[in-house]
């Protein structure tokens, strides 16, 4: 693989990605904690208590952060079991649940399904949409973040159409492009959600193959930009083999590297 960056630059970018991921925080019971300067004092600066927003049946899957046009930060968490998105306004520490329409689960076949959420930015500051789909659902949905922040889901969730196959959502580039793969397959695709003149159509004719599967049995689990937004990174592992106990003597295998498109250019 030919990269324009030197090895030292790549190592620096890997560190920045790891630092950004660590600063995001992690779950402690029903609380989500954020760190400030993790390489120095590990100081917790924010704590998001979900105990009043979840129930015994809740199954939290994905978390993403957003900024409104006024600069205020919001956090969205998907709860697959209760068909909801939890919204937290960071500055005021106000949180609430947005229950999604029953229609988004009517064709789901999984007993413990996964509710994917991916945030794509809009053309103006503070604008954007949250794309939602259950793993076993046949359709893709979207809700504008302005409606989500108001707690409004009635009549605001758009059905974008059928998915060609079951999709595993990997992440976004921090702008308008969403990355995914099909369940059980290693090829990674990109979908520009804001293609000029075509803002509502969803279908395979809009998908671009950006990475072919390797021969090592690894599958992509995450795609994310670094904290500078200049390099897009992909995380892959052999987790299906690990879970099934078929990894052999080499054990778990994880790889983090820049996402390079089929044309050989680095995705940014």
UniProtKB/TrEMBL annotation:
It is found in: Secreted. Pfam families: MRJP. It comes from the Eukaryota. InterPro entries: 6-blade_b-propeller_TolB-like (IPR011042), MRJP/yellow-related (IPR017996). Keywords: Secreted. The keyword Glycosyltransferase does not apply. GO terms for cellular component: extracellular region. The keyword Cell wall biogenesis/degradation does not apply. Its main location: secreted. Belongs to the major royal jelly protein family. PANTHER family: PROTEIN YELLOW-LIKE PROTEIN, PROTEIN YELLOW-RELATED. This is Protein yellow-like. It comes from Aphis craccivora.
């Amino acid at each position: 693989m030919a990269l324009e960056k030197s090895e030292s630059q790549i190592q620096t970018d890997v560190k920045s990605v790891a630092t950004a991921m660590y600063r995001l925080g992690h779950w402690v019971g029903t609380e989500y904690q954020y760190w400030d300067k993790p390489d120095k004092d590990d100081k917790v600066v924010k704590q998001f208590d979900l105990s009043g927003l979840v129930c015994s049946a809740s199954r939290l899957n994905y978390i993403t952060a957003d900024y409104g046009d006024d600069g205020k930060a919001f956090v969205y968490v998907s709860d697959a079991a209760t068909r909801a998105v939890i919204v937290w306004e960071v500055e005021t520490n106000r949180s609430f649940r947005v229950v999604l329409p029953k229609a988004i689960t009517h064709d789901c076949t999984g007993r413990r399904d996964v509710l994917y959420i991916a945030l794509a930015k809009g053309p103006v500051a503070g604008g954007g949409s949250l794309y939602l789909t259950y793993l076993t659902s046949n359709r893709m949905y979207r809700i504008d973040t302005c409606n989500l922040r108001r707690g409004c889901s009635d009549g605001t969730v758009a059905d974008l159409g059928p998915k060609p196959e079951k999709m595993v959502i990997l992440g976004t580039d921090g702008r308008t492009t969403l990355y995914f793969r099909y369940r059980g397959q290693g090829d990674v695709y990109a979908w520009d959600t804001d293609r000029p003149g075509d803002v509502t159509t969803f279908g395979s004719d809009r998908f671009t193959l950006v990475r072919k599967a390797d021969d090592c049995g690894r599958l992509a689990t995450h795609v994310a930009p670094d904290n500078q937004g200049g390099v897009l990174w992909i995380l892959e592992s052999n987790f299906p083999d690990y879970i099934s106990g078929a990894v052999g003597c080499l054990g778990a295998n994880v790889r983090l590297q820049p996402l390079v498109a089929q044309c050989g250019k680095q995705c940014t």
